[in-house]
Design brief:
alpha/beta, 2,3-Dihydroxybiphenyl 1,2-Dioxygenase, domain 1
């Protein structure tokens, strides 16, 4: 069964920065903000909100806890083709992210696994975009 949605907690002071990074990095895929149903919560997606970014006060989770969680956080988006992967990587770097793996085949996953990784500048979350159709641009 597919996942319907997920929520990621970030420090409240980083909510806007993470949101803007994602919008800048994924807008070429139709990714947009849908709603802010309550303060400090943003719903993002293409045709409906499926990624919820929730800002929490740092006294709820101390800074060291967030840094540990973010160091291991990894969220992957699906791309239709290799060009979308390359566009995400370029846009993510332009938006201030750090390359955590350039666009390319990762054949240790399977022969057509083509992806890129960018860590966002606000929290260091490892964002990935992947196509399972190889790197030929189709």
């Amino acid at each position: 069964m597919p996942c319907d949605h997920l929520s990621l907690q970030v420090p409240n002071t980083k909510l806007e920065e993470v949101t803007q990074f994602l919008l800048a990095s994924l807008s070429h895929l139709g990714f947009k903000e849908f709603m802010r149903p309550v303060p400090h919560v943003v719903g993002l997606g293409e045709t409906m909100p499926y990624l919820w970014i929730a800002g929490v006060e740092c006294d709820q989770l101390d800074t060291a806890t967030f840094e540990t969680l973010n160091k291991h956080a990894h969220i992957a988006f699906a791309a239709e083709n290799a060009e979308q992967v390359r566009q995400f990587h370029e846009a993510g770097l332009k938006a201030g992210g750090t390359c955590n793996g350039p666009p390319g085949l990762r054949t240790h996953y399977h022969p057509n696994y083509y992806c890129a990784f960018v860590k966002d500048p606000a929290c260091g979350i490892n964002w990935e975009i992947v196509t399972h159709h190889g790197g030929d641009g189709k």
